[in-house]
Amino acid sequence: xSSFKILIKNIFVTIFLVAFFIAGLFNPASASMKCDAQRDxxxxxxxxxxxxxxxSLMSCSYDVTLALxxxxxEPESFGWIESQSLIGFDTKRxxxxxxxxxxxxxxxxxxxxxxDLFLGNHVLSVPIYVNNLATDVYGVPCVTGGPxxxxxxxxxxxxxxxxxxxxxxxxxxxxxxxxxxxxxxxxxxxxxxxxxxxxxxxxxxxxxxxxxxxGFIFSVIIAGAVALIAGMLLKKADRxx
Length: 241
Description:
By secondary structure, this protein is α+β, with helices and mostly antiparallel strands. It has helices spanning about 1-25, 35-40, 215-240, and strands spanning about 40-45, 50-55, 60-70, 85-95, 100-105, 110-120, 130-140. The protein has a four-stranded antiparallel beta sheet, with no helix packed on it. Strand 1 and strand 2 form a beta hairpin. The protein is rod-shaped.
């Protein structure tokens, strides 16, 4: 019977070791080995050009986009973000260990620019990104007004002396008697009703990830059940002794 007890104890210890091993696979600490763009991607953004390097130790590939905007308003002023308009964008996929360069031609008409480097390929009309990797705000020289027109000088003509003219003697004038005037009565005026504007909404997308400990809970339940059975067998073995 002693060998039977030793066998039961060995099975019990083995089950517990397996349970803790499985629980370690689902531990939140192991979640750090998942794909993380903020950790994996090295990036450099300067005005309308950027470079991205994927330093992932796993098989994590990412889509990255450089979008360029301009605005007639000064940076950080009221309505600065809402007044921006999209000039263009460049999207590329960067594989593990690779680097990519992104560039957008600066063809905007305004003096102030904003470049956004973000994860993914969903470009917004207004730069409100929740998956942003880097932002650069800068200004460019502005051209105001048109060409200056120089007036052509007009030559001076000699001044002629006017001849004397006869002044006529005024006669009696008849002053007309004013009659009654009809004052028009103003009619009702139609006040135009302003049309309601349609404001374009901006949708930002965000990717969420979560981890769970389902494997750990399942392993603990199995270990508990095995421990209960082992206890019953040990108790039965003691009674036989």
